[in-house]
Amino acid sequence: MSRTTKVKISITLKFITFICVLSAFLMYVDGIPNLLMFFTGQSNFLIGVLQLILGILLIRSMKSGKYELDTVPYILQLICTVAITVTGIIFCGVLAPVFLASGAPLSFILSPYQMLLHVVVPVLSIVDFLCFTRPQNFTYKFRDFVWPISYPLFYLAFQVICYVRGVEFYPGVTYPYFFMNWGSPAGVWGFSKEMPYFMGGGYWIIIILLLVLGISFLYLRIVNKHIVKCRDNLI
User: What does the DSSP assignment read for the chain?
Assistant: First the structure.
């Protein structure tokens, strides 16, 4: 596959991702401001806007005979791609089973906006990043894998401030996800027999941060390997 074709596919995926994010936000019944209080909403918003901007910049770059962007957009793409990956993993592996166990109908889990936010957008973003990110004059450095942890830490600080100030994510609920309920039976560092609060929120945060670093490290290894291969093949 030629470099021009790869860039065109990447641009197409970026615009499709933006359209999916926009569609999901318009479908959300509780309103966009409420959705943006959640990590899901923020990570989708960030990847959607970034992909739109990168798609436009790539089109302009191609017209000038170039096929890559500056260093900063690639770092931002890494951060946002890892964040949206975590969004998909947490929903499919943690939240969806909890919702079903608490009596939520399957139709809620499989609703169009849920699938767009938690499955379609993450998959499109991951495919674009891993398969079509091929800068010629830039390779991710080892230390770059730490950058994606910055956003989850920002959201953690945001959520703690909201919790302390009593900001409601749902009517009467001051936390976005059960594992960020600092007043649960398990608390921050405790354990409980009451599901889903079998362990404190502090343990969940550590697990999620380690997941972020693991995904980031894996993504950098994959992308850098393909970048070098493309250079060697002069594609």
Answer: --HHHHHHHHHHHHHHHHHHHHHHHHH-TT-HHHHTTSHHHHHHHHHHHHHHHHHHHHHHHHHTT-----HHHHHHHHHHHHHHHHHHHHIIIIIHHHHHHTT--HHHHT-HHHHIIIIIHHHHHHHHHHHH---SS----GGGGGGGGHHHHHHHHHHHHHHHHT--SBTTB--SSGGG-TTSTTTTT-B-SSTT-SB-HHHHHHHHHHHHHHHHHHHHHHHHHHHHHHHHTT-
**pLDDT tens-digit profile of 45-85?**
999 999 999 999 888 877 776 666 665 688 899 999 999 99
Q: Would you state the structure tokens that stand for residue 189, as one six-digit string?
A: 């560092």
Burial zone of 163 (CB within 10 Å; 0-12 exposed, 13-18 middle, 19+ buried): middle
Contact 121, 41 (CB under 8 A): no
The model's pTM: 0.92
Give the separation between CA 112 and CA 28, rounded to whole angstroms. 10
d(C-alpha 183, C-alpha 139), whole Å: 44
Residues 6+ apart with CB under 8 A from 186: 192, 194, 197, 198, 199, 200, 201
